[in-house]
C-alpha cells in the first residue's frame, strides 16, 4: 500500500518594528502578507495552539535513605533544552515518612505542539533539619538524591490515560547503568485545564479607517494582545490582512479564556496597516476585556479607536473617527486537540524529497544534497526531515513512515515523480526518523537526478493512503512533508490534486530549500483566504497547505519549521469539526 511509480515594538516614525529588526519584504521569504504577520507575531510571543497542562505526581518504592524512618520526598521539575541545559520550573511540597508519596501540589505548563518539550524530574529526600524551610529556599545539593527520570510532554498527553510511569535512575553523567537499580518509579499524570476548552468566537468590523497610504486605502489587520504585569503586551490572536479596505469586516477570531487569563483581563486591540517591509503602521487601538467586548456586541454600538501621541509626561490619547464594532460574540465549549489524541487519534508522518538535477551533484560540497562526512546535519533536506519528524513522531504509535522521492531516475526504470525512497517496488514505509535518513542517504547514490519538478504524483500517493484509512474508519490524520529546491512545473495538476485531497484527513507542509524564487508557490497556500480551484471548477473544502522557505529557518529567535507545525492542530480540528467527528465518535 502507498507505493508509487511514474513515467516520466514601535519605531520613531510610529510604525511597528519588523521582526528581528529586519525589513524583509512579504515577497522575499513569505508567501503572503498573512505569513509575514504570523512571523511578526511569533517574535512577540504569539503561539497558535494554547493549552495548559496540569501535571500531578506520585511515586512507588522509593529508596529509603533515612535510618529510623522512611524518606521525606520532594519532586523537582525542569525543562531540558536541545543543548542539555536545565531550567528549574517547579518544586512540590515535602511528603513526610513515605516510600510511596502522592504529592498534592501540581505543576502547570503550557503545551506547545510545534516543539519537543523535554522534561526532567528529580526526587530528593529532604533532611529533617530543613523540613521547616520553604521548598523554594532549600539547597538541593544539601539533600539526598533519590533518582531522576525524563520524558517529553508529548509522551504524557498522547497516552490514553495521560499517565506515564518512569523508572528512577542515577543522574546523567554518572557511571552508566547496566542493571536496573530498583530506585522506584515516578508516576506523572497530565490533565488539560478546563479553561482551555472554553472558546469565544468574535467577529470584528471597523468603519472609517484612516488611510495610511498615499494612493490607496489601508491594508488593515487586527492584533489582540493581553496586558501583562511586566513587559510588552503578548499577542493572543489576530485577523487576516484585508487589502485596500477602509471598512473591513474580518473573519471570526477565536480566543480561549485560558489564553487571556480571565474574561476581565484587559486586552489591547490594535488596528495596523500592513507594510511589506515589516514596519506595520498603527492606525489606532482600544483597550477592552472580553466582558467589555461582549457588552459592546450587545449594545450594537461601536467604540472610537485612539492613537497615542506625545511621549513621557506629555503622553495623551487622540480619539479618532474610526470605530471598532463587535458583530458577533459567542462562547462555546469545544473538543480540543488533546482530547482527540487522548481518545486514540494519531498524526501520521510522510515525507517526499526532491531529487531533481537542479540540486547539484550530491558528491560536491555546493550541492543541496551534500552529506557532511563528519555526520553533522548541515544539509537542508536533513534538517527539515529531523525538525519536523522529531515533533510528529510522538503522535504516531508504530513510527513507520511512508517516504518517497521524485524527479529522478531510479535503477532500471524511467524518470519517476514518485518512487519509494527505500528502493522497494512493493512498499514505501521505513522505520522511524533514522529510517528516513538511512533511505535518503542510500537513494542519493542509487538514483540519477533528473526533472522536472512535479508535486501531483506524491500528493496523490499520500491522498490514496489517507483515503484508504478514511474508508476503514481509522483514527488517523496524515501530514505530508514535501521538501523541494525549485518551483513546480505542474501547477494546475497540483491544484487538482490538492482540491481532491482537501476532503481527506491530510495536511501538506512544503519546505523550499536553496535560493529559488518561490513566489509562485503562494497560490498553493490559502493564507490569503482564497480557496484553490481545480481545472473542473471545484473549490477546495479547506486549506491544507502550508509553505515556507527554509532560508528563513531562523527569523529572530523563531524557527520557521516551528511556525509551520504550529498550524497543524488548527487544520486537524477544522477537518474534525467540518465532518462532525468527536473524540468519542467513529471517524
Automatic annotation (TrEMBL):
Family: Belongs to the copine family.
A GO biological process held by the record: defense response
One Pfam family of this chain: Copine
InterPro entries, sorted: C2_dom, C2_domain_sf, C2B_Copine, Copine, Copine_C, VWF_A, vWFA_dom_sf
GO cellular component, one term: plasma membrane
Organism of this sequence: Microthlaspi erraticum
Keyword set, alphabetical order: Calcium, Cell membrane, Lipoprotein, Membrane, Metal-binding, Myristate, Plant defense, Repeat
Main location class: membrane
SUPFAM superfamilies in the cross-refs: C2 domain (Calcium/lipid-binding domain, CaLB), vWA-like
Domain VWFA: start-end pairs: 366-568
Name this protein carries in UniProt: C2 domain-containing protein
A GO molecular-function descriptor: metal ion binding
Ranges for domain C2: 32-168, 180-307
Compartments reported by the entry: Cell membrane
Gene3D superfamilies reported in the protein's UniProt record: C2 domain
Membrane-topology annotation of the record: Lipid-anchor
Stretches that traverse the bilayer: none
PANTHER family: COPINE, PROTEIN BONZAI 2
Amino acid at each position: 500500500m502507498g507505493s508509487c511509480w511514474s513515467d516520466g515594538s514601535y519605531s520613531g516614525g510610529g510604525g511597528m518594528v519588523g521582526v528581528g529588526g529586519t525589513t524583509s519584504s512579504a515577497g522575499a521569504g513569505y508567501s503572503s502578507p498573512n505569513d509575514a504577520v504570523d512571523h511578526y507575531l511569533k517574535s512577540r510571543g504569539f503561539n497558535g495552539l494554547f493549552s495548559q497542562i496540569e501535571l500531578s505526581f506520585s511515586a512507588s518504592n522509593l529508596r529509603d535513605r533515612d535510618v529510623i524512618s522512611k524518606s521525606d520526598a520532594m519532586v523537582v521539575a525542569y525543562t531540558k533544552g536541545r543543548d542539555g541545559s536545565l531550567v528549574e520550573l517547579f518544586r512540590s511540597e515535602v511528603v513526610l515518612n513515605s516510600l510511596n508519596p502522592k504529592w498534592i501540589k501540581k505543576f502547570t505548563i503550557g503545551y506547545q505542539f510545534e516543539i519537543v518539550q523535554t522534561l526532567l524530574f528529580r526526587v530528593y529526600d529532604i533532611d529533617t533539619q530543613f523540613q521547616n524551610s520553604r521548598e523554594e529556599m532549600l539547597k538541593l545539593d544539601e539533600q539526598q538524591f533519590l533518582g531522576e527520570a525524563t520524558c517529553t510532554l508529548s509522551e504524557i498527553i498522547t497516552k490514553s490515560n495521560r499517565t506515564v510511569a518512569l523508572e528512577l535512575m542515577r543522574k546523567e553523567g554518572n557511571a552508566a547503568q547496566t542493571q536496573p537499580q530498583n530506585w522506584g518509579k515516578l508516576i506523572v499524570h497530565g490533565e488539560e485545564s478546563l479553561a482551555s476548552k472554553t472558546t469565544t468566537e468574535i467577529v470584528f468590523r471597523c468603519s472609517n479607517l484612516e488611510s495610511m497610504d498615499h494612493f490607496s486605502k489601508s491594508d488593515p489587520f487586527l492584533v489582540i494582545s493581553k496586558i501583562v504585569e511586566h513587559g510588552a503586551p503578548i499577542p493572543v490572536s489576530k485577523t487576516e490582512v484585508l487589502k485596500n479596505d477602509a471598512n473591513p469586516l474580518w473573519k471570526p477570531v477565536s480566543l480561549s479564556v485560558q489564553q487571556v487569563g480571565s474574561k476581565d483581563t484587559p486586552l489591547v486591540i490594535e488596528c495596523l496597516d500592513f507594510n511589506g517591509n515589516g514596519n506595520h503602521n498603527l492606525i489606532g487601538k482600544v483597550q477592552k476585556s472580553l466582558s467589555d467586548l461582549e457588552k459592546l456586541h450587545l449594545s450594537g454600538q461601536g467604540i472610537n479607536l485612539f492613537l497615542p501621541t506625545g511621549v513621557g509626561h506629555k503622553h495623551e490619547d487622540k480619539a479618532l473617527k474610526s470605530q471598532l464594532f463587535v458583530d458577533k460574540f459567542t462562547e462555546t465549549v469545544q473538543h480540543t486537540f488533546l482530547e482527540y489524541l487522548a481518545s486514540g487519534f494519531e498524526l501520521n508522518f510522510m515525507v517526499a524529497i526532491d531529487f531533481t538535477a537542479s540540486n547539484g551533484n550530491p558528491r560536491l560540497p555546493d550541492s543541496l544534497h551534500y552529506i557532511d562526512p563528519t555526520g553533522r546535519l548541515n544539509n537542508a533536506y536533513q534538517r527539515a526531515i529531523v525538525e519536523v519528524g522529531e515533533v510528529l513522531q510522538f503522535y504516531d504509535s508504530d513510527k513507520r513512515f511512508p517516504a518517497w522521492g521524485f524527479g529522478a531516475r531510479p535503477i532500471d526504470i524511467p524518470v519517476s515523480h514518485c518512487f519509494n525512497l527505500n528502493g522497494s517496488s512493493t512498499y514505501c514505509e521505513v522505520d522511524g526518523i533514522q529510517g528516513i535518513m538511512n533511505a535518503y542517504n542510500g537513494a542519493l547514490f542509487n538514483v540519477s537526478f533528473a526533472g522536472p519538478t512535479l508535486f501531483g504524483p506524491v500528493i496523490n500517493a499520500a491522498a490514496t493512503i489517507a483515503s484508504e484509512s478514511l474508508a476503514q474508519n481509522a483514527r488517523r490524520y496524515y501530514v505530508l512533508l514535501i521538501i523541494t529546491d525549485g518551483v513546480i512545473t505542474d501547477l494546475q495538476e497540483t491544484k487538482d490534486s490538492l482540491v481532491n485531497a482537501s476532503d481527506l484527513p491530510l495536511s501538506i507542509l512544503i519546505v523550499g530549500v536553496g535560493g529559488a524564487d518561490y513566489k509562485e508557490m503562494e497560490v498553493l497556500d490559502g493564507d490569503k483566504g482564497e480557496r484553490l480551484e481545480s481545472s473542473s471548477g471545484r473549490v477546495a473544502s479547506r486549506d491544507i497547505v502550508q509553505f515556507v522557505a527554509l532560508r528563513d529557518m531562523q527569523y529572530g529567535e523563531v524557527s520557521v519549521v516551528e511556525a509551520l507545525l504550529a498550524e497543524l492542530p488548527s487544520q486537524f480540528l477544522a477537518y474534525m469539526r467540518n465532518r462532525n467527528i468527536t473524540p468519542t465518535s467513529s471517524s
